[in-house]
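Quick one - inputs below.
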Amino acid sequence: MPFSRIVYKPEYEELEKKALIIRKNVIKMIGKAQSGHPGGSLSCVDILTALYFRILRISPKYPKDPERDRFVLSKGHAAPALYATLAETGFIPYEWLDDLRKFGSPLQGHPDMKKVPGVEMSTGSLGQGLSVGVGMALAAKIFESGYRVFVLLGDGECQEGQVWEAAMSASHYKLTNIVAIVDRNRLQIDGCTEDVMGIDPIGAKWKAFGWTVIEVDGHDFLELIPALEAISYTSKPTAIIANTVKGKGVCFMENNVDWHGKAPKQDQLEEALKGFDEIEFMESEDVSLDSKN
Amino acid sequence: MVDPVFIGIAGDSGAGKSTFVKDIATLLGKDKVRTISFDDYHSLDRVERKAVGITPLHPRANNLGLAIEHLFLLKQGKKVLKPVYDHSTGNFGDPEWVVPMPYIICEGLHPFFFKSLAELYDMKVYYDTEMDLKFNWKVKRDTAERGYTVEQVAKEIRLRQRDIRNFVEPQCALADIIIKLKISKNSSSAIGVDWKEPVDDPWIRKCLKSCNFDNWKCFTEWHAGRKMNVFGIYDDLNQEQLKELSGIFSISRDLLSKVQEKEVVPYRTMLLLFAARIKQIRAAKDKDNEVVLKNAV
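Output:
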């Protein structure tokens, strides 16, 4: 089995472009399926992009390589973002994206490890992903394997008791090869997380459970990537609190709890896509101005 | 965007680097200085080092590649996430963000061990302390702060002599300034300072030209294969002598105003000289940037 690792590392600007493509695909997919969770999917796109294009040692050619890094999407309802990223990485064909949430399609509303290559764990029932991740990391330690485990949690998900049991056991077994990323967008299905069941101060909580805590801006690759790479120099499990904006990238979805689990209508879809085109245009404009100077 | 002045300070463990850095930071203004301790780039913790059987002085026990990467990023004005080594436990703590500041001081065992590292600095200092002084300081610090016993420290010092000769002392040859602390009977603090710079360095040559050789001890000597101009400070200075010194080395007034003691010990004088030197580098850099900006406009 060849050593699976993406050798080519794109630069930050390239990553931003990739994130934009993924965001577009997420909106298109959900618009076509007329159901899904756009808010949480859009907020974690940058984290997924950083992971899949810079951090994870994986190869679409060998999705079952035993030495590959594991990524568990514990907030399973953000599946559209994961699917779009997998398509962009080459794990699944682009055509599959059209059949999101259709009967018989491999891409269901929550990811299925049996049907989609590159998905490590079937998730969706919130709170279970970190437990699975801890198991994987423990296995790596027992088999003396070098792979690392990354788990993406929602912030509303941290209200689940199981998350904290897993957090406790990770620090008990001194798992230095696990990273929990909390997508801190401050909103969940019923409203603001602090109103539903307050989880602040979330960093102090993880710290008390024996984790190394790094707080970053979840939409800034300059902070995300160093934080994700910091796994190599701590002697504790790492928790990254990524402060994000729910529905990032679509102006009418940003920080709006109504868009947690609602699909955009045809006119809204067009408006959203137009917004992305504008961002793209502005970025290309920036580049041309820079080159003139 | 900040274009930091990089200062590297190499020296044996216990030579007094961190105290020196702390004092320099207070002289330059604490909000302008960020210190990076190269001890944070240890790649093995205390238990692992014991298992492998190497001292922290060995480059192999240090993640110098990461250090190079971080310094390059800081030079570009980007912030970095730096590991943190906890001396009290011998383990790694939570990493912390480092943002570029006007002065970035890197102190440690191998700050310019590699050529690619050495080229990054605007100023490289080798901090050399006489063995007797060093022994006393190291015993005092390691028993008080780092949880060792006196016998352990003495044994450790013996064991690491070879690694010091092999991995730390060679950096002497790359340094711009060598600061040597030695025992001096003339001073009230019992510590005198030799300030050595290679003879081809324009700064000290220019300064020494305006120096009255009857009042100051200046001579040349060979050190690590290079001929050095040495400026010796062995006596306590009073404010008048300090004024004369500031004339020679063009030390600015705001720096002088921070040293108000009647009798300035050689160590403080050396700090003053050093602060003046790097302030001049900072000023030169700002001037260059201004020119670049003007041209761009």
